[in-house]
Amino acid sequence: MNYFEKKKIKDILEDKIDNYKDVIVMGWVRTKRVSKNIAFIEINDGSTLKNLQLVILSPDEHPLAEINRGASIKVKGYLDKVEGREQDVEMKAEEIEIIGEAPEDFILQKKRHSFEFLREIAHLRARTNTFGVVNRFRSKMSYAVHEYFYNKDFKYIHTPIITSGDAEGAGEVFKVTTLDFDNLPLTDAGQIDYNQDFFAEETGLTVSGQLEAELLATALGDVYTFGPTFRAENSNTSRHASEFWMIEPEMAFCNLEEMMTLMEDFIKNLFKFAVEEAEEEMDFFNKWIDEGRRDMIKNIIESDFGRVTYTEAIEILENSDHDFEFPVKWGIDLQSEHERYLTEKHFQKPIMVYNYPKEIKAFYMRQNDDRKTVAAVDCLVPGVGEIIGGSQREERYEELKNRMEELNMDLEKYEWFLDIRKYGSVPHSGFGLGFERLLMYLSGMQNIRDVISFPRTPGSAKF
Ligand code: 4AD
Ligand code: MG
């Protein structure tokens, strides 16, 4: 059989195939109903949420008894138009071949399982309606990211996953080593001798591709990364994963203001793509996960994001009569409850908060003239909180060096990072969008574990 002879259910239901005879479909059985003279099987092949209805006119001639829910089958037959039903095509099955049986203890029987339970069987959950939709949605939105940047002539770059630095300086790096834990080589001072490790220095999994993206932006102009990032942050929340995907554009000759414009345009384009190109998925989320989600997303496309400085945001919080668990005062890092108040109660739409105190932000951010704040921006959305963090970068060699010294960073280790400030330095800016946070926002799914196929979180790395 030629690969292209096999038809996808999506194409069949969308009436995209020309020959209605001798069609071959392969998929997994969802339901089966057998009576004396006729049988019906619904199969799903993962190409769409919808199942294809198979009609079997002489049940006795087929191995129907062995075909249970979950089994994989190959069916040959012809397509028939039908009227007055949800789907206007069904397939009259002429030959049915069992590819893989599914014993009756197949766990996904026709009943609704909780998301908590489905996380424990993540190896099978993509075969449910919800997680089929989630996985297809992830795929489509990934495409949307690439399409957006391709059309803007950004270069898609690949930054390393194993690094010797901590881009965010937050100390949340997973170590990468081949040293023998039972026999660690020590220096004379009694410390672990990383010279004897695989890379001859201490290395870990990247927390962000930004630093390398900056190197390439100052050569290629506009670039972006889209890859996995890792954080050994021990926060067991519904919004944090230890491995998540981040989209990080980095633009040369670009300041904070210009970057915020791009940020908003990017988000709105992704939302537009979701509504227009991922109709089936948005319909599903709107019906089963959060009613009204689609209209909410549409409204955002039409309206402007709020823009507010950190200092103004603090004033809003101080002047509110809301009782916060974490007291508000200038200089604090905004907690989730503060972010939620701002975006859900006060602005009631996505907002960009910018110019944060330098003490609570990363070393590479550009210092403002007040010498107290840096040109950082976070994009906050209702329900999810922070989905983007970004900044204009410190492009002045001396300023950056001083800041790194203040923070006791090893300058030698970051010589290359300082170098691009030495030779043809330019104002440049970039941000990181958490892909899972974006998916949560668009879908209304409440837990990050349910928008990534195989989540890694503290205490959990199965599958
Ligand atoms: O704010 P963050 O830490 O910024 C950076 O890493 C910058 N280097 C980005 C840049 O300027 N190029 O992370 C960016 C985004 C957050 O806004 C959030 O959406 C997501 O990444 N994120 C997480 N998503 C899931 N689980 C986690 N543990 C996350 N940590 C950050
Ligand atoms: Mg952040």
Characterise the protein shown here.
This protein has 12 helices and 16 strands. It has 463 residues and is α+β, with helices and mostly antiparallel strands. Strand 2 and strand 3 form a beta hairpin. 4-amino-1,4-dioxobutan-2-aminium adenosine-5'-monophosphate binds next to strand 11, strand 15, strand 16 and helix 12. Magnesium ion binds next to strand 15. GO terms for molecular function: asparagine-tRNA ligase activity; ATP binding; catalytic activity, acting on a protein; nucleic acid binding; transferase activity. Its EC number is 6.1.1.22. One of its GO terms (biological process) is asparaginyl-tRNA aminoacylation.
Layout of strands and helices, then pairs:
Layout: H1 9-13, E1 23-34, E2 39-44, E3 52-56, E4 72-81, E5 89-100, H2 115-120, H3 129-151, E6 155-156, E7 162-163, E8 175-176, E9 203-205, H4 210-220, E10 222-230, E11 243-252, H5 256-277, H6 279-289, H7 293-302, E12 306-309, H8 310-319, H9 336-346, E13 351-357, E14 373-381, E15 385-392, H10 397-406, H11 415-422, E16 428-434, H12 435-443
Parallel strand pairs: 3-5, 6-10, 12-13
Antiparallel strand pairs: 1-2, 1-4, 2-3, 4-5, 7-9, 8-9, 10-11, 11-16, 13-14, 14-15, 15-16
Helix pairs in contact: 3-5, 5-6, 5-7
Bound molecules: 4-amino-1,4-dioxobutan-2-aminium adenosine-5'-monophosphate and magnesium ion.
